[in-house]
Design brief:
34% of the residues lie in helices and 26% in strands. It has 13 helices and 23 strands. It binds zinc ion.
């Protein structure tokens, strides 16, 4: 089978760039850097990822909304830290036609400042709470670093959930729900991840605290796929989001947000793909099964007819199936669909018809499995589960193998991937470690917190209060 020009384990970055274009996900020739054109196959893939998100939103009783793209400067300026954090990344609109606007508008970098003035009108009493909404829209951030398809872009395909609660505890319950949602969602994509409580100096602008969702790419850099923020009442005060409590007093809401982007695609491409192309988890594959008829002279009609029957049957079972009846060699078809990461291929030749069977070929192993015609749907389901599990296990191995828990700087220097070191809790000590290791702080582990008993901070020697993880990041 033909392979990509660049090899995944030799030059990951070039391999990634090659795959993105070869598999028809996006077109990077649009004349604004970091604003790529979604090609049909890439957009379809994204829409299936979005469908999984919408399913989770439905399940957790969030309602979908759509807020305008433009935000007046006066609204944006209400939360001081937020402006501070985003100021340098914002695109401004100053003119309409030939007229200079009285007030500048900005393209949303995220939608807090668009939504919250309206939330203050929607929320009147405790009966209006919790308010749970989300939208999937484009946001804009002026990136100055090198852009990379799906990973660092200037027009972002963005999912943002925003919630308002009566008090801090209820907002904390929302964060717990968000974490459970993330666990279900990323498991469906066969993407094991780590939660990190981001350090104070690197949390979201305006947040009380931020939890990041990080995956490890095969380049051993981490990629942040999402973040969950506890705002407390940091935004509800400037935006006056208040409600009347049962006792008649007026109180400020506590708020949370949960955000993700097309970086999820970046992770699917980078973590699951191989030197023959993408491998897309069946849960989001635009085409889950491709049927390739193996045509022999004199048997054309028989093979095509049989293939069509299998195709129609699978379509009725709501499997996303495609029959490739193009007039090219089966080998060229295999190549195309492997490149596009279709999880399962069905080959049908004259001999299979005689045997009343088809050949199933999972994308990752390439193993050919004869299956009797009656058991195709059941076997497809099994193969989907098997493939998803193998993708997950491989990614989990990569992740677990590259988390290095060490206690001194010397040990840390010899390790790649994710480094875990004890920490005293003083910002400057962690910042010094970042400098020495040339890595960024991911944050404190959130789920499992190993004991720091008898451990000391490798910089100041004082007793450690927690562990911190560091890595090179995208
Ligand atoms: Zn220290």
């Amino acid at each position: 089978m033909p392979e990509t020009r660049y090899k995944k384990d030799e030059d990951f970055n070039e391999w990634y760039n090659e795959i993105v274009e070869l598999a028809d996900l996006c077109d990077k020739r649009y004349p604004i850097k970091g604003m790529n054109v979604w090609r049909p196959y890439g957009w379809k893939l994204m829409s299936y990822v979005d469908a999984l998100i919408r399913r989770e939103m439905e399940f957790t009783r969030h309602q979908e909304v759509y807020f305008p793209l433009l935000i007046p400067e006066s609204l944006f300026n209400k939360e001081a830290e937020h402006i501070e954090g985003f100021g340098g990344e914002v695109y401004w609109i100053t003119h309409a036609g030939h007229t200079e606007l009285e007030e500048r508008w900005l393209l949303r970098p995220t939608s807090e400042t668009a939504m919250y003035p309206i939330f203050s009108l929607w929320i009147r009493s405790h009966a209006d709470l919790p308010l749970k909404v989300f939208q999937i829209v484009n946001t804009f951030r002026y990136e100055t670093k090198q852009t990379r398809a799906f990973i660092r872009v200037r027009e972002i395909h963005f999912f943002e959930a925003h919630t308002c609660h009566s008090d801090f505890e209820d907002a904390e319950r929302q964060i717990k729900e968000d974490k459970e949602m993330a666990s279900r969602f990323f498991y469906e994509l066969s993407l094991p991840f780590l939660f990190h409580k981001r350090p104070e100096w690197d949390k979201f602008a305006g947040a009380f605290y931020t939890i990041s969702i990080d995956v490890l790419m095969p380049s051993l850099k981490t990629l942040q796929l999402g973040s969950i923020h506890q705002y407390r009442d940091n935004f509800s005060k400037p935006y006056e989001i208040k409600y009347e409590a049962e006792d008649g007093t007026h109180r400020y809401c506590h708020q949370t947000t949960y955000g993700m982007s097309e970086r999820i695609l970046g992770a699917i491409i980078g973590i699951h793909g191989d030197n023959r192309g993408l491998i897309i988890p069946p849960s989001v594959a635009p085409i889950q099964v491709v049927i390739v008829p193996i045509i022999f002279k004199g048997k054309e009609e028989q093979v095509l007819e049989f293939s069509k029957k299998v195709f129609e049957d699978l379509k009725q079972r709501e499997i996303r199936v495609h029959l490739d009846d193009r007039d090219i060699t089966p080998g060229s078809k295999y190549y195309d669909w492997e490149l596009k990461g279709v999880p399962l291929r069905i080959e049908i030749g004259p001999r299979d018809i005689e045997e009343n069977q088809v050949i199933l070929v999972p994308r990752d192993t390439g193993e050919k499995k004869p299956v009797k015609i009656d058991s195709i749907p059941m076997k497809i389901e099994e193969e989907f589960q098997g493939l998803s599990k193998r993708l997950y296990d491989n990614a989990l191995n990569l992740l677990q193998y590259n988390i290095n828990k060490v206690s001194t700087i010397e040990e840390a220097k010899n390790k790649s991937g994710i480094i875990m070191l004890p920490w005293c809790g003083v910002d400057n000590c962690a910042l010094e470690i970042e400098e020495i290791l040339d890595k960024s702080t991911l944050g404190e582990p959130v789920e499992e917190k190993p004991s720091v008993e008898n451990m000391v901070c490798p910089i100041c020697g004082k007793p450690a209060t927690t562990w911190l993880r560091y890595a090179k990041t995208y």
